[in-house]
Amino acid sequence: MRSSIPPLFWSLFAGSQAQGDTVGYWKVESASDCSGVQTEVGQCPELPECEECIPIDCVFNDWAAYGACDSRCTGLRERHRTTKQANNECGKPCLGDLTETSNNSAVCPREACEGKVDCTLSEWSIWDTTDCDVNSHAQQKRTRDFMTNAKNGGKACASAMQETQPCSPPEDQLDCQVATWGQWTSCSKTCDIGFKSRTRKVTREASNNGKPCTNILEQLANCTMTSCSSGPVNCLLSEWGHGMDAMARAHFNDSTTAKC
Length: 260
Prior knowledge:
The protein is mainly beta. The protein has one helix at residues 243-251, and strands at residues 21-25, 39-43, 59-60, 76-80, 83-85, 99-103, 120-121, 139-143, 146-148, 162-166, 177-178, 193-199, 202-204, 218-224. Among the domains are: 1-48, no CATH class; 51-122, Single Sheet (TSP-1 type 1 repeat), CATH 2.20.100. The strands form seven sheets. It has a two-stranded antiparallel sheet. The protein has a two-stranded antiparallel sheet with strand order 3-5. The model is unreliable at 1-9, 12-20 and 243-260 (pLDDT under 50).
């Protein structure tokens, strides 16, 4: 085929000495109806014979000492190792880590580079009035969360995390009140010793856990009149007046006058 197609020519053999093969090729110089192969493989001349491969495995060096603690207060530190011997083409490669990390708070305490941190709380949430929509006498509540936990001996949070209050605004506490004393009544007797009384009323009842009234609402007192042992008291009439008004005034002129 090659001799029948003038535009084609074979290149010089050139190839990999390691593989022991040479490669020759030809290429199409102009368009034509070609068939056949474009590559041939042949043996390289004068190569030495291959020797049997003796495995040489990869070997690690020992681990180095751990380095200093991480300056970012992570509590971590690292150690490293390298390969002491690389493997050949038939030896085993190294399998394993080249860096190892240790997390030991006893060796790298975080508080060594952190100061005291006090606990902090968030602001109160808005009042949750869900239950109030159903019952005006129910309770509404609000909450808050931890923002920062105490660290390294900082102050812990000791405040309430939830508050509650009535749905309706609380009414003012009102104590019971009483009026001032009224006037004394007339004495129960017209002579000797009798009694008289006076009263007062509650003007406002206690509400919303206010103090109830414990006051006395009626008082009694003795009243001393003219002695009844002074003898009988005769009826006395006034002079005649004009009309009924004058008679009435004369009749009630003296409250100690005996009835006629």
